[in-house]
Amino acid sequence: MGRYVARRLLQMIPVFIGSTLLIFLMMYALPGDPVRALMGEQAFDPSVVENIRRDLGLDLPIWQQYANYLGGLVQGDFGTEIASQRPIADIIAEAFPVTIRLTLFAFTFTVLVGIGLGVIAGLRPDSVRDRGLLTLTLVLISMPSFVLGYLMQYFFAFQLQLTTPTVQDSESIGDLFLPAIVLGSLSLAYVARLTRTSMAENLRADYMRTAVAKGLPRGRIVGVHLMRNSLIPVVTFLGTDIGNLMTGAIVTESIFNVQGVGDAIFEALTRREGATVVGIASLIVIVYLLTSLLVDLLYAVLDPRIRYA
Amino acid sequence: MRGAKSAKFVAGAIVVALAATACGSGDGEDKKNTGSGKPAGYVSIDVGEPQKPLIPADTNESNGSYVIQSLFTQLLDFDAKGEIVYTNAESVTTEDSKTWTVKLKSGWKFHNGEAVTAQSYVDAWNWYANIKNNQQNSFWFADIAGYDDVHPEKGDPKADKMSGLKVVDETTFTVELKDRVPYFNYKLGYTTFAPLPKVFYDDPKAFGQKPVGNGPYKFEKWTHKKLIQVQAWDDYKGPNKAANKGIQFKNYSSLEAAYQDVVSGNLDIIRQVGPTDLPKYKQDLGKGAIEEPYAAIQTLTPAFYSKTFKDVDPKVLQGLSMAIDRDTITKTVLNNTRTPATSFTPPQVKGNQELDTDIFTYDPKKAKALIKEGGGVPGNKVWIQYNTDGGHKEWVTAVCESIRNATGVDCVGDAKPDFATDLEARDNDEVKSMYRGGWVADYPVNVNFIKELYHTNAESNNGRFSNKKIDAKMAEGDKAESLEEAVKAYQEVEKLLVKEMPAIPLWYYRINGGHGENVDNVNVDFHGDIELPQVSVK
Fold it and tell me: Which sequence ranges are marked TM in the entry (chain A) (predicted)?
């Protein structure tokens, strides 16, 4: 198993290089020059634009620019932003903790509430509470996140005055509560439905009948035998969902004014700050890779039949 | 036990993952609680992260300008009517519009205690203009004699000082220009002409993160992407001394979020209400709603190299102009955020005049006739290029609809995904027929709206309009003895523009902002910025 993990970790290196190259090429292919865009709609001096481009190495051929970028990256240098002249490592260090915090809240909310609701409904398929859950999740799935965001903002901040409408301090748990719920609610609906269906199906499985016949206490039947077998599809979904929560937060981040990764990458993209986009996007790729590794490992925990040599 | 064993590995992998993803978070922890909490007496406003370091000559976008204006004071400023108000200067005088004498008020200091002298200005201007320093606004100094030595078109500078700048004594210096520029003193109101203290030259990069100025506020802190805080400076001697204790410039990722914060009292001032909230902001904010016109104009600029408009008869453009129902579009689609244009210059600038013409009036019949008279539009179709990230789609569609209905000329929007792409198409002469043009006053004189946009060699003349007669008239205006004569000459130029139609003026801008109940005296200056020093806290 140790070798398996090591192999998977090593495989990330070519994937990381490949993804940086791809994103780098895509940024290069986009029309619009970052230095020119900096000058805006006002009058400007073309010789200054030329000068800045030369200083930043933006006039070099694309392969040379990429080589320079990778060379810096190997030494831990993400590069410098064109407009603000700040190290991109700083920008990443500001944005990622905020998003990670938000993601963790949203994720915890999804797992706890989603699986909880799924279990409650799944144990009594076709009962009233089951139908109730299906309706509720249907509403959540079909509602765009900005509708839910504005609704929550209106209800909790303006009607009940429980919180401020936007996040004032991205490090306070109370402030991040609302955006985390909005962010997690779509996944919550999926998780609840997956859990519910999976449990309802496994209730009729042979091993369940055996467990009941053996006279095991009900808590053990549900908690160990049923849950463990029913959670595999849920874990698969949750694994990829961590990545989605981190990158898909742009809408939620802008409604609640959270300056996280979504906001940073969107701004960098419109300003054609190539190096910033490549840096952030590559880190997100790594997050995806790590979570998928985690999911694969969790399979072995949940289902002893799966083993990694 | 197999399960337990693999669980251990999973735990190990989780540790690895957390270490990898959270490697940056250690940095964030020690900056705790920087985002919230406003000191008493401070005013907060939604001004986002400046794009560039805070150096006066390197900033022309609005976020950075706001902060720089609070930290630095130039020689003079303008009142709401566009008249000169001397701030750091005692007087700026000239006899021949070529040599200007600047007298400074004595006793002024930078925030670090250093005296503001004639030398502070001259050294700063020389540094700004030097090509080696890559300052974005360096071309503003191009009028000054010796500029070409410090800022040659190619290669290294031949000198590090402009020969036109001479220090006379502690508080006096003279500026000699290459040619007469009767309105040069108006240019001096631009933030680019601010002085710099000596500490700047030690480390310009560090200064850009922590500037020391001579303005009404002194720099306190900058938490990137969140907030910039400046504190009122007690020793400030200018007429625009702060009526509040300080300002917080807060970054918002959307106009809607900022608006919600104003309504709920977490933010004092919003500069522009987003389109979704425009229909209701007057009810929400009551007396706090701000609706003020300012000196900016939006135009449709034909590309005179395009298939549609190459060698076009100006009558066709006049016809297109008359086919646009400005009144209805500004009232409905634009929610009264603009005022229909009646000339090429906004009313706030010197020299704005009533033009004796009907080309700005909606008249479908005449529009049709004029287009026919001018030989029609090739292919009977026009495109309007715009960027989709700036909220332009709605009015472009409405204008097209208006043109189509009035004249039968087909009109479609040519959407570019963002501003950078839009600008690139303009620079490379790839506009299909017209583009959305916009211009905000740099200084409140009509010259700024005419010469910078329609002179053959003007950098922002992306429609490549070129007319020798008009260029000659502008040159005449620049040679004028006095400002009044120059303005008059440019008024004549404007009358010619009506005949030649280098652009179709659409409307002037209005600022639609608002403030909460905690602040008062929120006024707007001529280029649409809130006069922050005047704002008082209740």
Answer: 12-30, 102-121, 133-156, 176-194, 277-302
Instruction: Note whether B28 contacts A: Cβ–Cβ < 8 A.
Output: yes
Q: Which residues contact A2 (CB under 8 A, 6 or more apart)?
A: B9
Q: How confident is the model at residue A307 (pLDDT cuts 50, 70, 90)?
A: confident
Long-range contacts of A220-229 (CB under 8 A, 24+ apart): A222/A119, A222/A123, A226/A199, A226/A202, A227/A119, A227/A199, A228/A302, A228/A303, A229/A202, A229/A205, A229/A302, A229/A303
Residue in this structure with the two tokens 């036990």, named with its chain if needed: B1
Q: Give the homologous superfamily in CATH for domain A92-302.
A: MetI-like (1.10.3720.10)
- Among B153, B266, B424, whose Cβ lies nearest the Cβ of A33? B424
pLDDT digits (tens, 9 = 90+) for B302-350: 999 999 999 999 999 999 999 999 999 999 999 889 999 999 999 999 9
Tokens 């030595």 belong to B149
Question: Quick one: CA dihedral B434, B438, B442, B445, positive or negative?
Answer: positive
**pLDDT tens readout for residues B484-497:** 999 999 999 999 99
CA distances from B256 to A33, A254, A304 (A): 29, 8, 51
Distances in Å between the Cα of B191 and the Cα atoms of B43, B200, B233, B234 are 22, 17, 19, 22
Query: Contact, A69 vs A278, CB < 8 A?
Result: yes
Q: Under a CB-based contact definition with an 8 Å cutoff, are residues A107 and A242 in contact?
A: yes
* ipTM greater than cut 0.90: no
Question: In A, residues 39-58, which contact B (CB 8 Å cutoff)?
Answer: 39-48, 51-52, 55
Q: With an 8 Å Cβ cutoff, is B52 touching chain A?
A: yes
Q: What are B165's strand-pairing partners?
A: B175
Backbone conformation region of residue B167, classed left if phi is above 0, alpha if psi is from -120 to 50, else beta: beta
Do B238 and B88 contact (CB within 8 A), yes or no? yes
What does the pLDDT average to over B445-466?
92
- Say which residues have a Cβ less than 8 Å from residue A135's Cβ, sequence separation at least 6: none
Residues of chain B neighbouring A37 (CB-CB closer than 8 A): 419-420, 423
- Give residue A125's pLDDT band: very low, low, confident or very high (50, 70, 90): confident
Model confidence at B8, in pLDDT bands (50, 70, 90)? low
Q: How far apart are the C-alpha atoms of B514 and B278, rounded to whole Å?
A: 11
Inter-chain touch B138–A32, beta carbons under 8 Å? no
Q: 């108006």: which residue's tokens? A: B186
Strands (E), B149-267: 165-169, 172-176, 217-223, 227-232, 246-250
With contact defined as beta carbons under 8 Å apart, do B407 and B315 qualify? no
Interchain pair B254, A254: CB under 8 A: yes
Give how far B319 is from chain A: nearest CA, Å: 27
